[in-house]
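Design request, tokens follow.
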């Protein structure tokens, strides 16, 4: 990945608690990799401004964009061309989520209702498993869509209180396919 061996000298941690109070994540990353400015584009294709480096942003982020007429949220980070795509909070809701690298503790069934969680401290949302093979699976939100879904996040599938398994989010859309 783009971080390479950046964290090789840091003890394993579940958070960024290894950074001192004086050292921000932005300063830490800046010292390890060269970030370059790039465009911030609205979801309608308008150039809104420029960012200091795409590596500093994540899907769902609102802070640090420096744009007027907000609030704006990062919808996607296009690393290949160093571009941020931004939109409104409502643009971050997703109904269909495709995951790769599935790992199952209990074998799920297509058409079955489960719950899914993609962010720490969020309540698992009802989903139905619509596609499943050994390389990927897809879930569809049953009631309310999931907010702030981003490629690279883990999606954990539950059957009531039991962890069924999960995978790595590869793609998501606003509508059922």
């Amino acid at each position: 990945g783009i971080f390479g061996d950046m964290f090789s000298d840091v003890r394993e941690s579940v958070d960024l608690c290894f950074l001192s109070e004086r050292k921000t994540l932005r300063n830490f990353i800046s010292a390890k990799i060269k970030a370059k400015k790039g465009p911030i584009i609205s979801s309608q294709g308008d150039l809104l401004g420029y960012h200091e480096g795409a590596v500093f942003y994540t899907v769902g982020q609102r802070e640090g964009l420096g744009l007027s007429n907000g609030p704006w949220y990062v919808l996607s980070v296009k690393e290949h061309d160093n571009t941020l795509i931004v939109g409104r909070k409502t643009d971050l809701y997703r109904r269909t989520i495709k995951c790769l690298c599935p790992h199952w503790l209990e074998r799920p069934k297509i058409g079955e209702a489960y719950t899914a969680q993609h962010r720490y401290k969020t309540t698992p949302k009802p989903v139905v498993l619509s596609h499943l093979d050994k390389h990927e699976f897809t879930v569809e939100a049953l009631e309310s869509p999931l907010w702030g879904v981003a490629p690279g996040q883990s999606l954990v599938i539950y059957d009531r209180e039991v962890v069924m398994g999960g995978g790595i989010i590869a793609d998501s859309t606003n509508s059922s396919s």
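Comment from the thread starter after seeing the answer: thanks! Residues 10-15 have pLDDT under 50 and may be disordered.
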